[in-house]
Structures are given as C-alpha cells and as structure tokens.
Specification:
- The chain has 139 residues and is an alpha+beta fold.
- The protein has a domain at 43-137: Immunoglobulin-like.
- It is built from 2 helices and 8 strands.
- Strands 1, 4, 5, 6 and 8 form a 5-stranded mixed sheet that branches. A 3-stranded antiparallel sheet has the order 2-3-7.
- The mean pLDDT is 85.
Amino acid sequence: MNRSITPILALAAVLISAGCATHSGEGVYAPQNTTKYNYENSEKFVLMDAGAQRSVTANTLQEARLPDGRLDIAANVRNRDNKRIQVQVNCEFKDAQGLTIDSTPWQTLVLTENGQETVRFASMNSQASRYTIRIRQAR
C-alpha cells in the first residue's frame, strides 16, 4: 500500500469511529429541543425560510366564525422589499389541543414592490379553533 495513503486511511477510521458513539444504557431516548423553533404551535403567522423572513410580514390578522361555525381567517401579507416577489401561503387549522385537523393547499401569491395583498382561508368544519398561516418562498 502506498505510504502517503496510510495516514489518510487512519484518520478516516478515527473520524468514522468517533461519529459512531454507542448508547451504553438500555431503553428509549427522550426528545431533545422540543420547544426550540416550535413556532408553528404557538404563533398564528410563521415564515418557513430565511428568504420569506427577510421579505414578508403580516400586519393584520382577522378571525371570524362563519354562520355554519367554520373559522374564517384573513391576513394582510406585505412585501418588505423594493422588488417583486413570489411566495407560497397556506393555512393549518387546528383543534383546541393544537393538532392539525385541516390544511389548505399551498397557493402562490405575487407581491409587488412594497405591496400588500389580503389572503383568506376558511376551515372545512367547525372543529377548528386555532390556526397557523405559513409562508415560504415560491418553489
């Protein structure tokens, strides 16, 4: 074997074995960081990526009940940039415990320079009591 390759192989073996730490105890693991970046469970409006976070905000959220009991949501989505952007938006409707019971399809929203558009969502049934509007860059 070539002498210059041997130290590289030894280093690779050390790195691989260091990455393969074993669990010395028996049983299950507890989840880690269960509250870190948990915004979808606590906020009504979330931005799903850095581009959306830099460019988009919602300055007004309105909630109402339709006559049949469904939750009706309206949000003013504003472009903070001085350029035209495309984003995708959807709404996750949740029950009182925060479990998603209804999700709208992603829809593309074109926002002009420093422009604002209102988006509306209505839940499929009267069980929805909470919601999260999600926005991401268009794909």
